[in-house]
């Protein structure tokens, strides 16, 4: 019998175990930790919009590294378990309803725009690389459209390509 090889989301590398050990919901949290160490985007930000945020690992990093009382909004198609100090919305980032929901939260929290827009989304993957690559590109473009609407001048936009 041959060896079975675990790939994709099933892989259990050191970052998977480190994320579990440190209480992060995903190994992807360490991407943002690394970016923040290099560019200090979170420590001075007072507001962040995290697109395609489930399961919430990047929101956890933001909550841990941003000043107390900062506005953290996470949006995804699927529900995101609550994170202390963060607001979660179950919306599709491609719809006008999503834009309206973001505007409502910003208005309620007395913000005009956000200082950081994060996007670490990807389509469900299953082996059709060309189709998934196209869907990934579309998600990035949709997140960029939202960033042009909600990102303050001089703000930071971080995405995965």
What does this structure look like?
- By secondary structure, the protein is of the alpha/beta class.
- It has a single domain (28-159), classed as Vaccinia Virus protein VP39 (Rossmann fold, 3-Layer(aba) Sandwich), CATH 3.40.50.150.
- It is 40% helix and 19% strand.
- The chain contains five helices and five strands, in the order H-H-E-H-E-E-H-E-H-E.
- It has helices spanning 14-22, 29-39, 57-65, 96-108, 129-150; strands at residues 47-51, 71-76, 87-90, 114-119, 151-159.
- It has a five-stranded parallel sheet with strand order 3-2-1-4-5, with helices on both faces.
- Helix 2 runs parallel beside helix 3 (57-65).
- The protein is globular and about 40 Å long.
- 32% of the residues are buried.
- Residues 1-5 have low confidence and may be disordered.
Q: Which CATH class is shown?
A: Alpha Beta
CATH superfamily: Vaccinia Virus protein VP39
Q: Rg to the nearest angstrom?
A: 16 Å
Say what the CATH topology is.
Rossmann fold
Keywords:
single chain; 161 residues; alpha/beta; Rossmann fold; five-stranded parallel sheet; 5 helices; 5 strands; 40% helix; globular
